[in-house]
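can u pls check wat happens w/ nicotinamide-adenine-dinucleotide
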Amino acid sequence: MTQIAFIGLGNMGGGMCRNLVEAGHDVRAFDLNAEAVAKAVTHGASAAESLAEAVKDAEAVVTMLPAGKHVKSVYLDQDGILSAAKPGAVLLDCSTIAVEDARDTAQAAIEAGFLMVDAPVSGGTAAADAGTLTFMVGGSEEAFNAAKPVLEVMGQKIVHAGASGNGQVAKIANNMLLGISMIGTAEAFNLAESLGLDAQTFFDISSTASGQCWSMTSYCPAPGPVEAAPSNRDYQPGFAVDMMLKDLRLAADAANGADVASPLGGMAEQIYAAMSEAGQGGLDFSGVILSLKQEQ
Ligand code: NAD
């Protein structure tokens, strides 16, 4: 049994925390939202009154927070994790944040005597609840080995991507490709259907031809061919447009900062931003096919 502090018990963190409790760990839970803490307590975690109290005796600290500014504040503020936790503890930030923020936070943690990994996830709330997330991990070999037993409780696939920040690099590069490929898939289905070829026939041909991709075969944006896809449930997420937009903005910022060309990533960001501004930010991102139809 390991003593673990869990900070950020939202849509993702709630299920991840429960899986750690169910695996027999002693989990101290903290969130600014008292309801989220109360829910974790019903799953067997103990409530901490403050961030400092949650982390003070922890051997491992897991954070699952909305964005970089929350992560920096929780780790670096005066009474944050780096001043309140025991040096030697392993710190695991599972939030999706900017590569630079992850690297700065890890550097400060290492200087304060901690092991730290960035370990963003692939998989949504269902995978968080089921303990089947994929973790893309950045950090030293020693930090990765210390974090791995904790990650294995919450996930199915744990990949060491290299030094600090590389977990975030893997996450944003993958999601940029996903955002682009979904738009391409939606355009292809829309074109085929508009010219008289039904979605199922086009799927049968293209899914075994050179157009094949995950956006088509696992998450088809046209209703019909893939039963489990959000397109068959009025585009309820799944993975919402606003979450894809967050990741594309992180990718665009990283590309600009490194002077790397990413024209399609930039266009994808604009397309999802337009959906969000039109009030469709809560739709599944495969609903981009609806905005193409509206443009016709
Ligand atoms: P969420 O908003 O549901 O949960 C975040 C929690 O953090 C909230 O309960 C909030 O009260 C808490 N919080 C914020 N600031 C805090 C602070 N200073 N101290 C303590 N608690 C604080 O978000 P989520 O959907 O669980 O996502 C968490 C992270 O996971 C994000 O970075 C997101 O991009 C990433 N992610 C989410 C999904 C998904 O499907 N939801 C999938 C992959 C990755």
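The first strand starts at residue 3 and ends at 7.
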